[in-house]
Amino acid sequence: MIVSYGTIIVMNYKPPFRITNKILELAQGIGHELGLLSGAKLDLLPITLRKTNQIKTIQSSLAIEGNTLSIDQVTAVIEGKRVLAPKKDIVEVNNAIKLYDNLREFNPLSMDDLLKAHKLLMQGLIQDNGIWRSSGVGIFKGDKITHIAPPANRVLLLMNQLFDFINKNNDIAWLIKACVFHYELEFIHPFSDGNGRIGRVWQQLLLMQMNPIFEHIPVEVLIKNNQHEYYNILAKCDYDGESTLFIEFMVAQILEALKLYNNSTVPQVKTPISRLEFSKIKLKQNWFSRKDYKSIYKEISTSTASRDLNYGLQHGLLICKGIKNQTYYKFNSD
Question: Which one of 1.10.287, 1.10.10, 3.90.25, 1.10.3470 gives the CATH number of domain 272-331?
Answer without folding.
Answer: 1.10.10
